[in-house]
DNA sequence: CGACTTATGTAACAATCACTATGGAAAAAA
DNA sequence: TTTTTTCCATAGTGATTGTTACATAAGTCG
């Protein structure tokens, strides 16, 4: 998972993977079938492990604004954590462009789920009256997602947690500007 | 350039490049030396051609706010233009992570120039009095850059120009919130 | 027209790619 | 203890990687 995360699909060879796992090719193929299936399993594992650390804190928020703020602030922390490659594996994946549509479909599914999660959160906030009905939910969800995706690139470039927290703070100012009537 | 832009460094083979150029390997190597040097020449060509279309409109702006707005709105248009691959080649490049530090250095240089351009613009606005001295220039520059980088990922995922213009608009609301005392 | 430099295509280079057939060792079952 | 099954490494599969030696064709100049 870490190798694919860091180097991408094409640039990571089966030799690299075997060396990192301390295994020989036959064992790898007996366990995962192919390099492609291993990547899918790796990114699914990534989502299952890393997902809660980002989506978890949002669930405890008492307002949509606080949820989005936690989403971005937690991202600033997680994406720059030093015990794994920087940035989000799903956001940074380019397997489809590298000529692997099967993986691309899985990645697209995970990305769509992130967007839909944000959208549903905002829709519920409109329903409950926290947000005025005039607010453009799709725009706001896409904006938050876009900022978080940009953070992944910044993190890979070497930005610090503080750098990204500044970005999150700036984005929340955008929220306040847009939500106001 | 388009092949590298779309598929990245590792996933683009010399065969692909030769086929796309209608040339055989010896000609390619006589002209460019190596795949690596060709990538560098391609991304430099990208910057020389595509750079002005983004940085050009900013120069005509009459305020820092308008300049940033043009930066983001023009990006929304250019990054989704249909006559070339979606997203920014410099932002989306992962050559360093793919194991090519020489290319990584060139990409880092181009990215740093973008950040420095934004930073200088904001510094000048503080100097001229348009922006209060209390504003965090580095934070604002990084925020604008981050949003633009996120746009590249969204564009590659299939977002439309209108989608990204919505993001740009939301980001400008963030500007207004941050610049106010 | 002939000599020479400049290209470009053919073919092949060693290395690495993803992947697998085979054989032997360890563990489980009888 | 013997048999059977599971497991895994050695070694090698054909294909493709980036790159180049050679030979032929084209263009340039005397």
Summary keywords:
9 helices; transcription (chains A, B); 181 residues; DNA-binding (chains A, B); elongated; Tetracycline Repressor, domain 2; DNA-bd_HTH_TetR-type_CS (chains A, B); Tet_transcr_reg_TetR-rel_C_sf (chains A, B); DNA-binding; homodimer; TetR family transcriptional regulator (chains A, B); mainly alpha
Q: How does this model look, in words?
A:
The structure is a homodimer of 181-residue chains. Chain A is mainly alpha-helical. Chain A has a single domain (50-179), classed as Tetracycline Repressor, domain 2, CATH 1.10.357. Chain A has nine helices and no strands. In chain A, helix 4 packs parallel to helix 7. The first copy, chain A, starts with a helix and ends with a helix. The mean pLDDT of chain A is 95.
Summarize the helices and strands and which ones pair or pack:
2 copies of one chain form a homodimer.
Chain A: H1 2-7, H2 14-21, H3 25-32, H4 35-59, H5 64-78, H6 89-92, H7 101-128, H8 137-157, H9 161-179
The first copy, chain A, binds a DNA duplex (30 and 30 nucleotides) through helix 3.
